[in-house]
Amino acid sequence: MPKITDVAHKAGVSVTTVSRVLNNRGYISEATRDKVYKAMKDINYQPNELARSLYRRKSNTIGLIVPNVSHPFFSELTYYLEHFAHKKHYKLLLCNSNRDVNKEKEYIELLKQNQVEGVIMGSQVLEVENYLNLNLPIVSFDRALSKNIPVVTSDNYLGGKLASDLLIKKKCEDIAYIYGGIGGPHHTALLANDRYQGFLEGIKTRKDQISLITKELNTSEIESMVEEVSEFLKINPTIDGIFASSDIIASTIIQACYRLKKAIPDDLKIIGYDGVELSTVITPPLTTISQPLEKLSELTIDLLIRQIKGEKVPFNNLLPVSLVERGTT
Question: Who's near 216: CB < 8 A, 6+ residues apart?
Answer without folding.
Answer: 178, 179, 180, 181
